[in-house]
Amino acid sequence: MWSQRQLLWHGLVLFSYIAISQADVFVVDQKPNDFITHGLTNITNNETSPNILDPITDALDPDWLTSINYTRWMMGLEDAISKGDTNLWAQTINKTFDLPRVIEEIKTSTESKATCFACKFIVNLGRSMVKSNKNDQEILNLFGQLCTILKIQTERVCAGTMALIGVDVLEAVKKSDMSSAQICSFLRGDVCLNGYDERHDWKINISKQNHTPTHPTTPPPENVPVIRILQISDTHFDPYYEQGANADCGESLCCRATDGEPKSKEAEAGKWGDYRKCDAPLRLIENALKHISETHKDLDYIYWTGDLPPHDVWNQTREENLLNLRLSAALMDKYFKGIPIFPSVGNHESAPCDSFAPPGSPARKNMSWLYDELDKEWSRWLPSSTSETIRKGAFYSVLIKTGFRLLSVNGNYCNQNNYFLLWNSTDPVDELAWLERELAAAEANGEKVHIIGHIPPGVPDCLKVWSKNYYEIISRYEAIVMAQFFGHTHFDEFQVFYDTKSFKRPVGVGYVSPSLTPWENVNPAYRIYYVDGDHPKTSRAIIDHETWKMNLDEANRNDNPVWYKAYSAKRAYNMSSLLPKDWDNLISRMNTDKYLFETFHSIERNTVYHNLYGFLEEETSFQQTVLNLGYGGLHFLAEGEEFLANQLKDKTPKFGEEYDFIVVGAGSAGATIASRLSETKNVKVLLIEAGGYENLIMDIPVIVNYLQFSNDINWKYQTEPSESYCRGLRDRKCNWPRGKVMGGSSVLNYMIATRGNPLDYDKWAEMGNEGWSYAEVFKYFQKLESMQIPELRDDEKMHNVDGPMRISYPPYHTPLAESFIKAGLEMGYPTIDYNANQNVGFSYIQATIMNGTRFSTNMGYLQFPNKRQNLFLSMFSHVNKVLIDSKTKRALGVEFTKSNRTIRVRARKEVILSAGAINSPQILMLSGIGPVKHLEEMNINVVQDLPVGENLMDHIAYGGLIFLVDQPVSIATRDLMNPMNPYLNDFLIKKVGPLTVPGACEALAFIDVDNPNKLDAYPNMELLFTGASIVSDYALRYTVGYSDEPWNKMFAPIFGNYSWMIFPMLMQPKSRGKILLRSQEPMAKPRIIANYYDDPEDVRISIKGIRAAIEVSKTKSMQKFNSRIHDVLVPGCEDHEYDSDDYWECALRTFTFTIYHYSGTCKMAPENDPTGVVNPRLQVKGIKGLRVADASIMPSIITGHTNIPTIMIGEKVADMIKEYWKKKLNA
Questions:
Q1: Would you say residue 447 lies in a domain?
Q2: pLDDT above 80 (res 764)
Q3: According to the 3-state scheme, what is the secondary structure of 168-214?
Q4: How many folded domains does the chain comprise?
C-alpha cells in the first residue's frame, strides 16, 4: 500500500515547515515580489494566515529557496537537540503550521500546494546538508531525531525507516541532476506543475491501424458457459502476529509481542485479526483459503495480485520477505491443488518496500534477489516461457487457453515512492514496450486478454507519465483487453478507462479488489468473477462479480469466522451488464442518485448498510425460500420435541403427602433451590409451579415482547392508577409482567446477565446482614455461571466455565450496537466486563443465552431426566397460603389449587417461598403474616406482624427516547418475519442472526451522571441500548400499554421507521412503593402501588440520564447513520420549554417505563431491625420452618438486572439450608 510514503514523506514535509518556523534562518538575497515579502514577514512574526502557503508555493522558485541559510538553521536545531530541550521548539511548529492537517493530506493523497512547497524545500535542504560535508549517516540521524521529536512515529520506527529507506532516498536525490521543482513535479504530480522536465515526459511507440476495433458494446448472451476466477489481493501475512498483543501501539504495524503491553482489554489483538494497524495472522489466511476451497469448488483460475509481506516497512529484510513469499506460495498450492494461479508482484515484496531499482542501479540494488525467487516460486503454475521476463522485471505473458491470454504487469515501475525512478523513469526494463508488443501479437492472433497487476494506473501512487502511456495502450487495444485486475488500495473500487482522443468514450474497466488483510479498518475479503466462457463467440468479458467478506468483529467475539457473500455487482448497482459503458453509466447515475452513491460508498468503505447483514444479498427464489423455511421449521420442531422430552414430569401430590422441603415457585430462585436441595439423595423435595412447561418458542430471544400477551405464562399484573407516573399509559397503569411458567421470569425476561456492583452487597452487609458482603456472595456468582464468551472464559479469577447457567454474548449485533460501543470510547468510557468489578463503561450485554436461544433456570437447573428421583414437580398449582401452626408458629406445609382441587401437602423440614416480589408477599399476607392493620382490614387472622409488602423497589426509565436513522440497520419485525429475507431461516437452522438478540436489547452503559468523568464511581444510571424502538413493532404499543392519544400524536407518525432507543434507567431509586392485598381471595391480583418518582432525587438523576443518552446520539459513531432524536413534544407536556428540566420531568411521568426488576417486598434485615421480614438466613422472622428466597428479600435494589442476583440468592440459601439441617441432624 502506501507505507513508505506515510513513514518517510511525513518526515520530509515536517522538515520543510521546521525550517520555515525558525524565523532567524531567513537570509533572503532575492525577493521575487512584495507578496512574498509580506508572507515571510507574517511567518517571522508568527502570524501566519491560513492561506499564506499557497501564494508562497506559487511564487518561490528553486533559486530563491537555495538562498536560505540552512547552515544556521541546522546549527540552531542541533543545539536544541543537544540540550534535550525540543518541546517548545516542536510546539511552535505545530502552532504556527497545521502539521496534522498536512500529514493527513499526504496520507489520503489529497495533497495541496503546501505539500509541493515542502517537497521543494526538503530537496534543497538535503542537498545543502550534503554540501556542508555532513555524511549520509549524520543526515539520516538528524532526520530520525526530528521524526521522533515531532512524534511522527516511535523512536524505533523513525530510526528503522531512516536506516532502511532513507539511504535509498538520499542516494536517489544525490545522483539526480534534476532541480527541486523538477523532482517534486515528478514525484508529487499535479500539485507541482512548475517543474517540467522533458526527460520524464516520454512516450512509447504504439502500432497504428487505419481502423482501430472498439470494445464490444453488447454483453454476452444469457446462459452462456462461464469461467470462474478468484482474485485474492493484499494478504499481508504477519508471521509475528500474536493474539492478545497490543493492537493500539501507535506505529504503522501493531499486534506483535514487541509492541508493549496493551493498556486495556480493548487494546488487545483479536484471535482472527484486528481492525487497527494489524496485518493478517496465519490462522486468518488459512481460514480464508480453506473456506474458499470448500465453498467454491468450481474455480477455473486464480488471480493473485500481490502484497504478501506485512506493513513493518521499517524493519524488513530480504530474507524475511523471501520466506513470506515461499510460505504464501506453499499455502496457495496446498489449498488450490490443480487450479492454475497467476500472480503479480506487489510493492511490499521488495525490501525496502517500494524499492525496485531499474537497470543501471548499483549492484547492491539489483533486483535479481527477488525476481529469481519469484520465477522459482511461480514456476509451479507458470510455463517456462515466462521465466525470462519474470527474471528481467517480474512481468510475463501466458496463454491460458486458445484465444485467451493473460498479461501480468509489474506496477512498481510506476510507483512514485520508488525513488530510483528519479534516475531513469523512461519505461524501466522496457515493460510498457513489451506490453504493447504482446497486445499487438494477441490482436494479430485473435486473442482476448486479461491484464493483472498490483498498483492501479492513475492512482496517486502511480507516476503520471507511466499512467498516461498505459492509458494510450489500453485505448489502442480496447477491442481485446476485456478486463484489468488490481489491488493495492485495500478498498473495493473500480476504474473506467476512456479513449485518449475525446476522453468521453469508455473503452475499458479496471477492477480493484479489496484486501484479505484487515489493515486498516476493513473486513477481510476476496472476489469471484464470472467470465464469458468457452463457446465460439466468447468475448472473455466479465459477466458479473461477487465479493465475499468476513465480519472480523463477529469472528473475534464468537471465535467463529463466518464468510458471507456481501454483494454481486449487477444486483447491487442495478446493472444489466458489466461492459465499460455500463460502468460509465453507473458513474452518471451516482451523480443524481444519492442512494446509489451510498450503495457504492458502503461497498467501497463498508460504512452504509442495505440490511442488517450489511449488504445486498442474492435473491432466493420463492420456491427455494419455502423449501428452506420448511426444512428450518422441521429442524426447529425436532429440537422442541427433544427439549420437552428432557423436562421434569408433572405429578399431582396426594392430599396430606409429606416432603422434606416444599419450594413454591419454579422461577430464577426456586428452580435453583429445588435443584440444589435435591442433590442430597435422602431428602424429598416438592417444587410447586403455577404455570406449565417452557418450550422453544418462548426461547427465541427477539420475540420476548410477544410472550407478554399470553395469559398462560404471564401473571399480567398492573399498578394502581396514578397521576404521578404512567400518565401516558392505558388507564394510567403500568403493565407489570411476571413469569408463570417453568423457569418463571427467567423465561419472560430480556436475558441480560449482570451481577450488580460489589458496593450493592457491601451495603447489604453494612445494614447488618451478615454473610451478604460481595466477598461472601462472590463464590455463588461463580458457582452458577458457565461463561461462554471466549475472551472472558480465560479470566479464571472472575469467571467460571462449568456452572449450570450459560452466559454469552448474543451471536449477532446490529451495526448500531457496534457504534454504541464506539460512542462510549469517543466519550471517554472504556469497554468493560461489567461482571468483573469494572464499575463504569460500555459493553455488549452478557446474556443467559446458549447457541442463540434463551437459557432459563428451568434449562440450567431442572434438565436431568431420570437422574433425580427425589425431586417432584407439581405444575398448574396455585398456592393459596402457607399452613402455619398458630401456637408453635411453625410452617407445616402449603395449600394449593390444581385442576379445581384444593390440595394440602406437608413439609417435614421447611417451606421456601420463591414466588417473586409480588407473589411471595401476597402468599405471606394470605397466610396471616404481614402488617397487622392491613391484615385486619382484609379479615385475615394475624399470625405474625411484619412489614410484608413494604420497601417495593424497581428500576425505571424514560420510555420515549427514540432516535431515527436513514438506513435499515435497526431491528424491525417486518424485516425479520419476511420469509424472503435470510434472518428467519438463519435462526431456525443455525441459531444466528438478529432473531438471537433479546428483545432488541444489545448493549448497555453504567455511568455516574453526577461524576461522568469518574471511572471508579458507583453508577447511578444504566443506559440500556436497544437496536429497535417502540415504533419498530406494533406489538410493543400493547405490551408497554401506551394509551391512544399520546401514541397517535407522538409515535404513530413515525411507526415503522428504522430507529433505536436508549432507556436511561435509574439504578438507585430512593422512592419506595408497596404491595397490598385486594381481598382474601388467593386468585385476586394484589394492589401494586409503585410510587415512582416520589422522591425528587429520582427525577433529578433521571433527567441527567436522559441528557447523557442524547449525548451518545451526537457522537461521530452514531452520526454515521444520521441518528437524530424524535423531538415531537410529549403530549401533555407542551406547556413546558423543550429540553428544560420541567419538560423532562413531565415526560418521565408520562412515559414511565419499567424494566421489571420488582424487589424488596420481603426485606432482609437483622433480627432487631423492625423494617425486615426475613433475617440474613432468609428465615421469616418469628416463624419456624419458613424462608423466603427471591428478589423480594433485597434490602436495597442492586445496580443492574436482577435475574442473576436472584439465582445467586437461590444458590446461597440452598447452601444455608443444607448447612442448617446438617448441623441439626449431627446434633
A1: yes
A2: yes
A3: HHHHHHHHCCCCHHHHHHHHHHHHCCCCCCHHHCCCCCCCCCCCCCC
A4: 3
